[in-house]
Amino acid sequence: MTARDLWNTLEDLTNDQFKQFQWFLKQDGIPIGFSAIAVARLEGADRQDTVDLMMQKYGCPGALEITMKILGEISRNDLKQCLLEISSRQKDPKGHDGVPLNSDYGRKMAKLGETMAKIKLMIQERQMKISEISRSAEFSSKSAEKHIADSVQAFAVLQQSVERSLANLIEAIEGKREATQKQAAGFIQELEKEISVLTKRSSEVEQLSRTADHPDFLQSFSCLNTIPPTENWIEVSVTPPSYGGSVGTAVNQLEDIFSEEKEKLFAKAKLKRVQQFAKDVTLDPDTANASLILSYDRKQVYCGDTTQKLPDNPERYNPAINVLGKQSFSSGRFYYEVQVKGKTSWDLGVVKESINKKELISAIPENGYWTICLREGDKYEASAVYLSVKNQPKKVGVFVDYEKGSVSFYDVDSADLIHSFTDCSFTEKLYPFFSPGRHYDGKNSTPLIISPVNYTD
């Protein structure tokens, strides 16, 4: 069996069947015994790329086995049978032209055929390795560009903070200097006025002192013998302001800004780490309350203003206005994002498989619900406890670490952690949980939207 045989088989799939085929490759343990190929690697992969990824992940026999299992799952048993026939022909105990292998010629031809097959396989392996290295190099280059852009943005923020703090500091110092100069100018102006008055009086007294027994002397003496009123300037001084305090305050404020920006960078880095565990989540119509309207691609849900006539099967929520994800998880870590912009009420999180969908129960961990919710447009809760949220999130990320026993919720745009459930005891399958809330006469008609995760390591 060669990679070309697998490629030819995938070429016979319709686009929808190929998408289904890739979906199975992304799921851990589906088919049983096979681990998933990373979602990020399958994104945008065509049929040839998909074959390369399977050969790298499972080897030639494993790639053949998982291909046949998935073909059975998507009801393409005709292609599965073709692969079986190709594989059987390649294992046929006869050489070229039906020559029995027990002849010397047959044995040598078989040996030569094995050598040729090994050489072709080595060539294919090296071609796939070239593709893998090229993709890794391209991925590394894009990752480097993203990190450079993030670094430039982060340091630009810090630089702007420094420049803004310096400008504010200079403005404060200039303000103190201007106030001091204004005070000094005022004192000088007053002193110069007094000097002018005193100089005039001095001239008048000197002139009077030269008058000898003049009739005007006695008349002017009483007026000129007193000193004009003046300020007591002994205690008056201009004290230079302290500029060191301003510098210290500015530096302390700058440290606070740096600390805040550092926390933002750490938060974004942490979110990036959990985003690598993104899974392709879709809604399960069999679990949806009859009032819920699901989009064709099973990525959006909102509450309609009428109730649909649907069979009340055991899996369907009734009366609660809820719906579950189609995919379940019982190990590892998984992450998904939901757009909540424009909504006044919603619930998100995960629930255990055995929850009772036919009763209204409290959404608390003891009942198998690890969820948060929005009520009345601005009240966020988890297990009936109000949450302190810095900014109203437009997109919420949900991250589950099954083995660690934690469920965390993130504001995707700011990377802030909204809430975490810790020390959880998971003992069964978990399903993504969604409730878009009631219609409320159109005030809450915006859908919840399961969004693609924009992740670049």
Q: Uncertain regions: pLDDT < 50 for 5+ in a row?
A: 95-102
What is the helix content? Answer: 40-55%
What is the molecular shape?
elongated
Distance between the termini: 35 Å
Judged by helices, strands and strand pairing, the structural class is alpha+beta
Radius of gyration: 41 Å
Question: Which series of helices and strands comes N to C?
Answer: HHHHHHHHEEEEEEEEEEEEE
Report the total helices.
8
Q: Kindly state the mean pLDDT as a whole number?
A: 85
Strand content: 5-15%
Strand order of the largest sheet: 1-2-13-4-9-10-11
Number of strands: 13
Report on the biggest sheet: 7 strands, antiparallel
Structural commentary:
By secondary structure, the protein is of the alpha+beta class. The chain contains 8 helices and 13 strands. The strands form 2 sheets. Strands 1-2-13-4-9-10-11 form a 7-stranded antiparallel β-sheet, with helices on one face. Helix 6 (104-209) packs antiparallel against helix 8. Residues 95-102 have low confidence and may be disordered.
Q: Quick gist of this model?
A:
The chain has helices spanning about 5-10, 15-25, 40, 45-75, 75-90, 105-210, 215-225, 245-275, and strands at about 290-295, 300-305, 325, 335-340, 345-350, 370-375, 380, 385, 395-400, 405-410, 415-420, 430-435, 450.
